[in-house]
Amino acid sequence: MITITFNPQNADQVQILAWAMTKLLSSEPAVDEPVAKEEAPAKKPKAVKAAPAPVVEPEAPAAAPAVTLEEVRAKLVAYKEKGKSLKDLFETVGCANLSAVPAERYVELLANIDKS
Residue 85, Cα to own-chain centre: how many angstroms? Predict the structure, then answer.
């Protein structure tokens, strides 16, 4: 016994397969051979050339004064000598310690020192 599962969309191929199996299993030659339908090749869609995107120059961010790690450390030492908690100060910028503070946030950290 042979079991074949097929997609109903391929009815022509199933008909040809059934004919071929019948021919193989029968001892008499087949009279009418089904002809496979040739499908026209699918046309490729023409490629549409897109216009080049305009070049947009990124605007330079507002020039913030460059603050070095040494300057921040010096301010932190002075802050700590006043008896204030560095942990609370670091939490204002969402970090646990100075090494976790990104350089872009040094200015914010110094501003928080000056506020306290």
Answer: 42
CB-CB contact of 101 with 109 (8 Å): yes
Structure tokens given for 93: 């910028």
Amino acid residing at 90: F
pLDDT over 90 (residue 116): no
77: closest CA among 67, 92, 89, 65? 89
Contact, 36 vs 16, CB < 8 A?
Answer: yes
Is 76 in contact with 98 (CB distance < 8 Å)? yes
Task: Find the distance separating the first CA and the last CA of the chain, reported in whole Å.
Answer: 88
Which pair of tokens denotes residue 59?
Answer: 């605007």
Q: For the segment 10-33, what is each residue's pLDDT rounded down to a tens digit?
A: 667 767 777 777 777 776 555 565
SS3 state at 69 = helix
